[in-house]
Each structure stands twice: as C-alpha cells, then as structure tokens.
Amino acid sequence: MPLRRRLIAFCLAALPLATWAAWPERPITIVVPAAAGGTTDIAARVLAEKMGKDLGTAIVVENKGGGGGSIGTAQVARAKPDGYTLLMGNIGPVAINFSLYKQLSYKESDLRGITNVISVPNILVVHADSPARSVKDLVGLAKTRRLNVSTSGVGQSPHMSSEMFRQKAGIEVTLVPFPGAAPAVTALLGQQVDFMIDNLPSSMPHIKSGKFRALAITSGERAAQLPDVPTMAEAGVPMQVTAWFGLLAPAGTPDAVILRLQQSARKAMHEPDVRQRFAELGGVPGGETPAEYDAFIAQERKSWAQIVKAAGLSLE
C-alpha cells in the first residue's frame, strides 16, 4: 500500500468509534467489476436496496467491467478507505486473477473482506435448438467440429470452468470472452456460440423459459430448482466448481465501518424476500464475519493457484 494510503488508513483507524457513529453521512457506491445483468450485478442491486434503507443513505451500483474484473477491482483498491466505496467482488478478480495474470494493478493486501453474499454453482447450457441433449452429445459434437464457447470474462469462474470441462472431456474449443454474463448469454441466445458454462443465476431465466437447455451443473449435488439436471460428475465429467460473490472494502477501512456493513448485509440476506430471490437463482446466502470471509478468500486463492498452475494458464 502506498505511503499516503497507509497514513490515511492509520489516521482513520485511530479515530475513536464515536467518530464513526454518524456514518454514513453521504451515499455509498458499490462497484461491480462486470457488465450489468450478471450474478455480481444482481447480488449488488439486491443488497443495495435493502442496505440503503437500513443504513439510511442511498447506495449506488456502478458497473465497471473489463480485464476479467480487474479494472473495477483496482478502482476500489485505490479508493479512500472510509466505507463509501465498496466492491461486489467475485471469485475471478478477488481469487483467480492473482495466479492467472502475470501482473495486476492491485495486490491481495489492498482489499479486506466484509462478508460473502451469495454462492452459486455454474451450469452448462446450450441453445434450445442445439442437437446436443446431454453432455455426452455435446462432447460427441465437439469431436466432429471445433465448438465456440462464450464466457463472462477471462479469469472468471465460467472461463475456468470451461477450461476444466475442455480438459476433463478431452475436447478442443474456441473461447469467446465477453465483458460480463449478460453479453455472453446474449451471444448464446443469438446462437453465435455453441454453448456456455455460466453462473446459474444469469442463465436460470432462460432455462425456465425454455430458450436454454441445461445439460449439467457444477455443484456436488443436483440443484433443487433443476432436479432433472445431472451434476457434471453424474454426466461423466469429474469436476466441481462453486462461484461466490461478496462485499469487500479498501484495506484500512475502519473496523467499526466494516462491522456495520457486515451487519447490514447479513440483515438484508436474512429477509424472506431476499432469501426467496436467492433460492430462485439457485444460490445460497452468505453472511460470514469479516474475519471468516478473509480466511475463506485466502484459502480460495491457494486452491485456484493450484488449478491455474496445473492447467498451465498465464495471462499478461
């Protein structure tokens, strides 16, 4: 952390708790490091409404996609640590990117966790008009011609899941990255690509409407919302991936503010309509303490570093 930021963080942290009793005194911004419409965006907007009412201030959601989520994440990492600029982070820029990219404009120590918000499996989907009606069919099709697969950004869990699927199934595909889930989903809706592995929430509406056919889910067990869809393991591809999305703040944000944010987010996640909304999306709400979330993120970084190394992946 640069000297100026360390001094600011020290001064803020040194202020007595009473100083922060009136916080927040102005609107809060949650930066979403992806395009609108994806799971990161959905989670941020659900929380923003509830937390804004609880905290007594407006919470603005700002989409800042690009760079596999690193551009928006770096923006928050550089922000003043006063609780007014937060990140709705996810598994890509907060965990995977540190081992995938040779150089990032932010460090692990630039961010601190507040709480996880939602964890979801990924889903392998094809267009309803696709001849593939199972994973076996899709693999067979991929051995007759090279298939195109859309992803919601390089380094995100759908990209890594696609890489794992390619390796485990023994096929070659052409990766078509987009700056978020919504444009990646749109490409499949328009049949510009052959399939995608997506976070379940952003594909669920199209599965329910019959526009997408779900072939397999990356969780260890079948989803209650899609009981007829097999797990990847059941479909013959031994892989398991869970994507997660949570709130983070710049390092140095005072403990009193972090705790207030965690309590507000947890309260929001326990409201019946939020739990129902998350369940409909196939997600499990979080609510962990900041310490628990930091420990979880640290373990995820180690786990994904091993996966990235084994895959031989590296990006500039």
CATH homologous superfamily annotation of the largest domain: Bordetella uptake gene, domain 1
Shape: globular
Q: What is the succession of H and E elements?
A: HEHEHEHEHEHEHEHEEHHEH
Residue windows where pLDDT falls under 50 for at least 5 positions: none
Q: What Rg do the Cα atoms give?
A: 20 Å
Structural class: alpha/beta
Distance between the termini: 22 Å
User: For this entry, what is the oligomeric state of its chains?
Assistant: single chain
Q: What composes the largest sheet? A: 10 strands, mixed
Mean pLDDT, nearest integer?
92
Give the name of the CATH architecture of the largest domain.
Answer: 3-Layer(aba) Sandwich
Keywords: Signal
Family: Belongs to the UPF0065 (bug) family.
Protein name: Protein bugT-like protein
Signal peptide: 1-21
State the gist of this model:
Belongs to the UPF0065 (bug) family. Keywords: Signal. The protein is an alpha/beta fold and 316 residues long.
Report on the structure:
The protein is an alpha/beta fold. The chain has two domains: 3-120 and 243-311, Bordetella uptake gene, domain 1 (D-Maltodextrin-Binding Protein, domain 2, 3-Layer(aba) Sandwich); 121-217, D-Maltodextrin-Binding Protein, domain 2 (3-Layer(aba) Sandwich), CATH 3.40.190.10. 42% of the residues lie in helices and 21% in strands. The protein has helices spanning 3-14, 39-55, 70-77, 91-100, 135-142, 157-169, 181-189, 200-208, 255-269, 272-280, 290-311; strands spanning 28-32, 59-63, 85-90, 111-127, 147-151, 173-177, 195-199, 212-217, 242-250, 284-285. Strands 1, 2, 3, 4, 5, 6, 7, 8, 9 and 10 form a ten-stranded mixed sheet that branches. Strand 5, helix 6 and strand 6 (173-177) form a beta-alpha-beta unit. Helix 4 packs across helix 11 (290-311). The longest helix has 22 residues, at 290-311. The chain is globular and about 65 Å long. It comes from Alicycliphilus denitrificans (strain DSM 14773 / CIP 107495 / K601). Residues 1-21 form the signal peptide.
